[in-house]
């Protein structure tokens, strides 16, 4: 029988090869890390952190699309507002008789406000569409003069130019006539103006109007207005009054002489 005492000794473990001084200096590396194995490291990212980074990246990537989405939503809302409201089954005539008749069941002022809002919504969409293509609004001009300027600078011809004139005429009727009169086909007129502006513009201008519309500046104006209104409410509203009363109650009274 072979002598067991002559058998080779087992190789020392990794921990046995690490002296106390090497461990103190962190000179010992586990075999799994030496071989590049599947061991995990302390500096790895957790699944939650990876998901958070992915969400942040998607949010940053979606930021350039916000003006495009906002502009499409505003355009759809405005053009929908120009359509006459109907009630009951589809295909029935607009609710109530035309303004000015004695059988109108709705209050006259309310109907006039609805008619005016439909026309002005179409006008706002027309002027903002022109702004997106580089024709800034000019509030000092009358609607007719502003439409002529859009036709001239936007290179509109034919049906597009006529549509701009019809919308301007409807706006002036709403603004200056004793009673606003409903105008039909405003959404189609605005669509023809927009198509004319797009056809006359270059490729760069079309991309700018779609991806970075200039009229999106109205969002910043609206946010600034709301912030100012909120600050004013905080300054003059009920919470501010309560704080002032609380401060007056906590203020020490003056000693009487």
UniProtKB/TrEMBL annotation:
Keyword Transmembrane helix: yes
InterPro entries linked to this entry: TgpA-like_C
Keywords from the named record: Membrane, Transmembrane, Transmembrane helix
Residues in Protein-glutamine gamma-glutamyltransferase-like C-terminal domain copies: 122-186
Cleavable signal peptide: none
Keyword presence, Membrane: yes
Compositionally biased spans, kind Basic residues: 80-90
Descriptive protein name: Transglutaminase
């Amino acid at each position: 029988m072979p002598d067991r005492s002559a058998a080779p000794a087992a190789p020392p473990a990794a921990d046995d090869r690490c002296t106390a001084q090497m461990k103190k200096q962190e000179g010992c590396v586990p075999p799994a890390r030496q071989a590049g194995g599947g061991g995990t490291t302390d500096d790895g990212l957790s699944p939650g952190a990876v998901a958070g980074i992915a969400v942040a990246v998607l949010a940053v990537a979606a930021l350039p699309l916000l003006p495009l989405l906002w502009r499409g939503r505003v355009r759809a809302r405005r053009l929908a507002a120009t359509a006459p409201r109907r009630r009951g089954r589809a295909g029935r005539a607009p609710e109530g008789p035309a303004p000015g008749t004695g059988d109108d069941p709705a209050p006259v002022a309310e109907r006039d406000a609805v008619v005016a809002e439909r026309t002005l919504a179409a006008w706002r969409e027309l002027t903002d569409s022109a702004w997106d293509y580089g024709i800034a609004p000019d509030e000092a001009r009358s609607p007719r003069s502003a439409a002529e300027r859009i036709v001239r600078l936007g290179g509109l011809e034919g049906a597009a130019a006529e549509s701009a004139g019809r919308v301007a005429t409807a706006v002036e009727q709403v603004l200056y006539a004793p009673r606003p009169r409903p105008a039909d086909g405003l959404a189609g007129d605005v669509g023809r103006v927009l198509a004319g502006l797009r056809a006359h513009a270059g490729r760069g201008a079309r991309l700018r109007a779609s991806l970075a519309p200039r009229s999106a500046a109205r969002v910043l104006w609206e946010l600034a207005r709301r912030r100012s209104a909120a600050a004013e409410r905080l300054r003059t509203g009920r919470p501010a009054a309560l704080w002032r009363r609380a401060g007056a109650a906590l203020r020490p009274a003056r000693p009487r002489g």
